[in-house]
Write a structure and sequence with these properties.
Length: 171
């Protein structure tokens, strides 16, 4: 009879040890899982921003869409359409900042005014605050310390050469 009491005591003490080990390891494991989750989400959003910048650059490169000159507003709309279609929250999409920068020596403000092979950069930024906070999946803030995200793409204009043709027939 004494033997069964000792075995019962050992089983209970083993259960207590397991409970203490779990109580010590579980918080660390949960923080690590939230960190991996948050970093994975940030990598996903960074890829979406890069792809959105590419979509904006493709639109700007042609100079014209269906005969209409491409402006920076058109580029912004293409970027926001891509981000919205990718499933980002509307708070983040509407708060996105899009800049088209002329990298060539020519002076133009709209992509439709660019010469062939003029270099330009499209930068897409989701600023800190409500737009960026809407992207977080993890409830724990400040795991990664990232407060805004940005992606840039350098591109070249693919507009047609601007040539004039003399329509008079030589004599």
């Amino acid at each position: 009879m004494r033997r069964s009491v000792t075995q019962k005591h050992r089983r209970n003490s083993r259960r207590a040890v397991v409970a203490v080990e779990a109580a010590m390891v579980l918080p660390v494991l949960i923080v690590l899982l939230f960190g991996v989750w948050e970093v994975g989400r940030l990598v996903q959003v960074q890829q979406l921003l890069t792809n959105a910048a590419r979509e904006g650059a493709r639109a700007a490169a042609g100079g014209y869409i269906n005969g209409t000159p491409v402006s920076t507003t058109t580029v912004e709309n293409n970027v926001r359409t891509y981000l919205y279609a990718s499933g980002l929250p509307s708070t983040a999409v509407l708060g996105t900042q899009v800049n088209v920068t002329n990298l060539s020596g020519n002076s133009w403000t709209h992509p439709s005014d660019a010469l062939p092979l003029d270099a330009f950069r499209v930068t897409v930024t989701i600023p800190s605050g409500a737009p960026f906070d809407s992207l977080r999946w993890a409830l724990v803030n400040r795991i990664t310390g990232v407060t805004q995200m940005s992606a840039s793409v350098d591109w070249r204009s693919a507009t047609d050469s601007k040539i004039t043709v003399d329509t008079t027939i030589p004599l």
